[in-house]
Amino acid sequence: MSVNSKLYEGKAKVLYTTEDPDVLLADFKDDATAFNAQKRGSIENKGVINCSISSHLFQQLAKEGIKSHFIDSPAPHQMRVKAVNIIPLEVVIRNIAAGSLCQQTGLELGTILSQPLVEFYYKNDHLGDPLLTRDRLFLLKLATEEQVQQITHLALEINKFLQQFWQKCQITLVDFKLEFGVDSQQQILLADEISPDTCRLWDTTQADPNLRILDKDRFRRDLGNVENAYQEVLQRVLKIVEGKKSGN
Fold first, then answer.
1. CATH of 85-225+239-244, one of 3.40.50.2300, 3.40.50.720, 3.40.50.20, 3.30.470.20
2. Which keywords has UniProt assigned to this entry (predicted)?
3. What are the boundaries of each domain within the chain?
């Protein structure tokens, strides 16, 4: 396979090969999708914003001992990453009831959960990414029991750190999605991205239920000012990260 040939194109990123078979180049796109790609659009500068937010968060998590596929960011919309075999699970961690949890259980939007809820969804667009029971997960051989235990532990550790980090940004982490992959050394690494595309983020300085939304729900629900919300999240992340660097 030639250097920098397209390996895979997803909804939000294009992956390219590099001269090193263990390293890939992820190019973040401005494309936006929702409802399993039934709704499509574009958010100006989304690729650059999400790449920057994800890069900073991966680096912050590395300091906490959470290993990811992140290597570096050679361009504003690009990330060099370790090549991994993605485990076909979307791991959703919920702290507050929102979205499908409310639709499927009748819980009121904004209900604070007594403890974080970790859910597994089958990463399969054709089937609509269905919610899985543990027995179905093992029936389909999507991961081993040991991998599920490790992923669950990592997800809760990541949630603990991100809740505190976003709180410093005056943002509430409602819920978010993670993906994991296995590298050439058979290590499980955090993969994909952490951004307003994959997190529900509420501005703690806003009481209005629509104005507080700083994530892709603005696109899903046609609330407008999507790029401004994403940009606001990036600015708050940079303020915290740069404050740490300067020792403030």
1. 3.30.470.20
2. ATP-binding, Ligase, Nucleotide-binding, Purine biosynthesis
3. 5-82, 85-225+239-244
Q: Is the pLDDT at 219 greater than 70, yes or no? A: yes
Quick: pLDDT tens for 67-76: 999 999 999 9
Which one of 3.30.200.20, 4.10.520.10, 3.30.1050.10, 2.30.42.10 gives the CATH number of domain 5-82?
3.30.200.20
Measured CA to CA, the distance from residue 196 to residue 201 in angstroms comes to 7
Question: If DSSP codes are grouped into helix, strand and coil, which group holds residue 227?
Answer: helix
pLDDT of 143 over the 50 cut: yes
pTM for the whole thing? 0.93
* Cα gap 24→86, rounded to integer Å: 13
- For the beta carbon of residue 71, count every other beta carbon within 10 angstroms: 17
Judge whether 10 and 179 are in contact, CB under 8 Å.
no
Output the pLDDT for position 233. Answer: 98
d(CA 172, CA 165): 10
Spatial separation of the C-alpha atoms in residues 34 and 221, rounded to whole Å: 10
41: nearest Cα among 211, 235, 224, 234: 224
